[in-house]
Amino acid sequence: MTGGVSQGSSSMDSTAEILEDNLEKILKGEGLEVREFDSVPEQVKPVTLRKSVCYIVGAVIFNSKDEVLMVQEAKRECYGRWYLPAGRMEERESILEALQREVKEEAGIDCQPITLLLVQEQGPKWVRFVFLAEETGGSLKTTAEADSESLQAQWWDRESPLPLRGRDILPLIDAGIKYRRNPWFPMLQPVDFPCQVICQRLFLTFISSNGNTDTSDEHRLWLLMSSNYATPHPSLPIALSVNAFDTIPRAVHRLVKECVPSSSMHVHTCGILGVQHNGRIPGKTDGVCFNTLVLLENSEDGAEISSPPPLEGDAYRWHEVTNQSLRAKIIQRIKEESVLPVHSLY
Ligand SMILES: C[C@@](O)(CCOP(=O)(O)OP(=O)(O)O)CC(=O)O
Ligand SMILES: [Mg+2]
């Protein structure tokens, strides 16, 4: 969260307004600067592409006959087998530039992203950004154009037999079909914000449960806020991935464990609201900030809970969202799971 610090009641309103504006931005998939590490640069080791982090992009592209674009691999270890156009990001690339480069190199096709479809991760050492994209030009790579990137590209009807490099692409294709039939979350593109680490900005919510009623306007909703003084305004907490295997849920659980002593709480990582990356300066902006929607639930079924669990220490506090429209939006995203899925492969 950015902006000046203000004092007094009127400025309290401006603080609340700025906070609500920032929450709305995150909900819309927009980005916010990550300023939390500005005051403690020594505590944070920037990540470096292809050394401490590896990002992969993959494209699910359909033609008018609902066939999916596939490329035949030229690599020795998977020679002649078929896969989605996919590959590792290179230095100074944005995520979208990597997507378009890989599809062009491997399939000969120009493409535009429709939306991020899925993020798969095993911690910073392996993060795969899967896109639903559409063909905008170029021409299918033929065997006469075979090179080290691929042997050729073809449209696959998804039924005829095809020797695959890996069956891991089948659920990715299914996700593309499902999204085209029923876009269950708003289209989402990465946004250009520099970040030196891999972290999650937690949109961590707690919803009061008053027994059995299910009308959203009867629920109260709180967000966990950080009292981090490096940022001029109340800000959402940032969970840092601290090693190569630190997946998003692990980093989230660790932060919650730090501040919520209550053991009857279940932490549900709902999914991703936004992806912030820049990548322009190797070793300085190779990080990604995932704006992540998390729900803290009381694990005792049916318990009537009217307020969030107490917090340990003063690093965090609960902020009740009293703006009814904003509250309803947040509750709707949670109930409908209307977020970019993140599959954390342990
Ligand atoms: C890494 C994959 O998702 C496939 C994409 O990477 P490539 O092996 O095709 O890399 P490039 O040579 O850059 O195209 C498979 C995996 O196991 O991670
Ligand atoms: Mg590849």
TrEMBL record:
It is an enzyme of class 3 (hydrolase). SUPFAM superfamilies: Nudix. Signal peptide: none annotated. The keyword Ion transport does not apply. PANTHER family: 8-OXO-DGDP PHOSPHATASE NUDT18, MUTT/NUDIX HYDROLASE. Mediates the hydrolysis of oxidized nucleoside diphosphate derivatives. Hydrolyzes 8-oxo-7,8-dihydroguanine (8-oxo-Gua)-containing deoxyribo- and ribonucleoside diphosphates to the monophosphates. Hydrolyzes 8-oxo-dGDP and 8-oxo-GDP with the same efficiencies. Also hydrolyzes 8-OH-dADP and 2-OH-dADP. Exhibited no or minimal hydrolysis activity against 8-oxo-dGTP, 8-oxo-GTP, dGTP, GTP, dGDP and GDP. Probably removes oxidized guanine nucleotides from both the DNA and RNA precursor pools. Belongs to the Nudix hydrolase family. This is 8-oxo-dGDP phosphatase NUDT18. It comes from Sinocyclocheilus anshuiensis.
